[in-house]
Amino acid sequence: MECKIRCWRIEDAEDIAETLNNKNILDNLRDGIPFPYTVHDAKEFIQAMNAADSESTFSFAITVDDKAIGSIGAFRQSNIHSRTAEVGYYIAEPYWGQGIGTSAVKQLCEYVFQNTDIIRLFAEPFAHNASSCRILEKCGFELEGTLRKNAVKNGVVMDMKMYSILKE
User: Fold this and answer.
1) Average pLDDT of every residue of the chain
2) Topology given in CATH for the domain delimited by 4-123
3) Which of 13, 18, 60, 81 has CA atoms 20 to 30 A from the CA of 46?
């Protein structure tokens, strides 16, 4: 199945609200996303991403047949890390295991490396999230190490993995 990344549209709100009302997705994301996730929440997110600084926030809808089925972004770090950006993404569960995550991450890397001065992208998936780790590996990210007891999610202390890819 082919996917594309594109700028957010306010019309994507209903699709994203449906996607994020899934604990299987939320359990692999950072805290701060409301549950239940409403269309209003999605509209606020889309508006915030579209209004964000275009030199530091690179946020896109992941789409199949122009329907938003996920989100992907790269977020520039600050100070001495200003040429580094953190990558984050999620995909609606019905689309898992179809190569969409790999395609979206490749598209994002290409966009960031071709259109910005960023030289390093990194991602920190939970260590138990083998699917996300595999997506990064298939996109050329290298495992730099395990961040032991690096996060608390749902009251559980968890390891995370540090992956990065460098601009060629």
Assistant:
1) 96
2) Aminopeptidase (3.40.630)
3) 81
